[in-house]
Amino acid sequence: MKATKPLIVATAILIAVAIASANSTIDTTDRYSWGANVGWIDWRAGDGTDGAVITSHYASGYIYSANIGWINLGDGSPTNGHSYSNAAADDFGVNVSVDPSSSPHVAYLNGFAWSANAGWLAFYSASPANRPRVNLVTGELEGYAWGANIGWLPLSQASAVISTDMSEFPTKTEVSMMVMANTPYRFAADYNADGVVDAADVIVAPL
User: Fold this and answer.
1) Which of 44, 51, 55, 203 is nearest to 137 (CA)?
2) Does 45 have pLDDT greater than 70?
3) In the predicted model, what is the mean pLDDT of the chain?
């Protein structure tokens, strides 16, 4: 299985992307993944201020490996406001996409992270079972990411689990209130094809 390459010219890789610090959504205990070629990776690096933040539409922040250094998940400011294009040096990162047809409900991770020492890390797999994702019932990350220089990176193993608190996902109550107030929710769409965009179209964190 091969991941697609980002549409970014080589010279643009040299452009630094400034990322505003934010409190990580990763659990204080369930925060590590293990790669056979890179060792442990901490998803709540920098005491949580520089760690991964996973929202209902994209990821941001950094994860850290003692062997390859910092890995940039995105700057948290997609050009279009809701997803990285992965087509420009200042607009790359890992996107999050809820799949309302999945059981259990999951949010897929798709896109690219960048390591100055290891190159691009692709959050993608052609195999449904291996697709990187967030289990919206448990909050645990599952599946694999891939780097040409580091190989496969499991997001969940028996001895290494990563969990997000899903604090950046709106609750069902919040979405219902938006619908009642006729306030558009920018991530909602007519996923169930019933002709209206309402709370039934948004699969979010359990209360």
Assistant:
1) 203
2) yes
3) 79
